[in-house]
Amino acid sequence: MKITAIHLYAAHFPLHTPFIVSYHTYDYMPSIIVKVETDEGITGYGESVADEHVTGETWEGAFYTLKNTLAPAVIGKNPLELEKLHDIMNKTVYGAPAAKAAIDIACFDILGKKLGQPVYQLIGGRYHNEFPITHVLSIGEPEHMAEEAAAMVEQGYQSFKMKVGKDVKRDVERVKAVRARVGEEIAIRVDVNQGWVNSATTLTAIRALQEANLDWLEQPVLADDMNGMAFIRSKTDIPLMVDEGLKGPREMREVIEKKAADKVNIKLMKCGGIYPAVKLAHQAEMAGLECQVGSMVESSIGSAAGFHVAFAKKVITSVELTGPLKFSKDVGNLAYDVPFIRLTDKPGLGVDVDEHTLADLTVFEATIR
């Protein structure tokens, strides 16, 4: 089998409401959908959601990296040879994980369709039957966040990921307001997205949140400050998760060596796709670290890819892939059974792509043959 054509669609996915994190407010999510065609007539879809603050790529930059560098490098290659494809991509361009993830995901979709199996069966087989879905609360006024959380509890949600990181004092008020509204039985995870910057500020917040009964605290300090993460972990019994600080095997080794976290957040866009994500999960398992699969707020395509990794691995104990629930229009039909996600046994990613919707959301495109 050979790759004969790669179609790139730079798209804007509309959100129901703006998504606010410590470093940016998103009125829509910019994404690149990749369609890979083969000489056997099997087509696979992938996705790239770049982020300047996380993957080191811009939306436009990822598009042109795919168009001018990665796609030409893999045209004519066998999409089933994943190890070789990643070696080719890594030798062609340094970094660019979100761009590489799009090619990787599309090739896994092709592999699954070729063999008539869902992707999770190709990377270990189904381990989990379902995962509870965590509702993500973007940054807002404390009372507004509390009201949204209460409404989501009524819909069946039992866990929340709170985005904070704008101001420590207000962040503490946000967390306390949500905890007071939803009670002690609901799980609350706090994601700072590097917003507290350093360990001193973080410890100030932790002291104020000691009675908030948090599941874990995610990436409070700058991504490269692994020493800061390790110091904070030595000073608190609130479990710590590393996110932006974990990209690939080198960072995972540092997390392990420095005992910098209790849990790691694996994202396909940070590490380069399904194949590297599985390697990270194995690396974490050997060190006794629990894993989560998260997302950069992707469509049904990227979200499904993350779910396939999560469903196949015992060491992955939680997921945060809720992009399709936040979009008012999506290109795929990944089905959620809120507050749970259960994957089907359809081959490949198991997602049907609506080409008309994709065309409607596309801002610019290109084809490489």
Describe it for me?
The strands form three sheets. The chain has an eight-stranded parallel sheet with strand order 5-6-7-8-9-10-11-12. A four-stranded antiparallel sheet has the order 3-2-1-15, with helices on both faces. The two termini are 15 Å apart. The longest helix has 19 residues, at 97-115. The chain is an alpha/beta fold and 369 residues long. It is built from 14 helices and 15 strands. The protein has two domains: 3-116 and 354-368, Enolase-like, domain 1, CATH 3.30.390; 121-341, TIM Barrel, CATH 3.20.20. The radius of gyration is 20 Å and the shape is globular.
Short account of what is shown:
With 369 residues, the protein is an alpha/beta fold. The chain has helices spanning 59-74, 82-92, 97-115, 119-122, 142-154, 168-182, 199-208, 226-235, 249-258, 268-271, 274-287, 300-312, 323-326, 355-361; strands spanning 3-21, 24-38, 43-48, 131-132, 135-137, 159-163, 187-191, 216-218, 240-242, 263-267, 290-294, 316-320, 336-337, 340-341, 362-368.
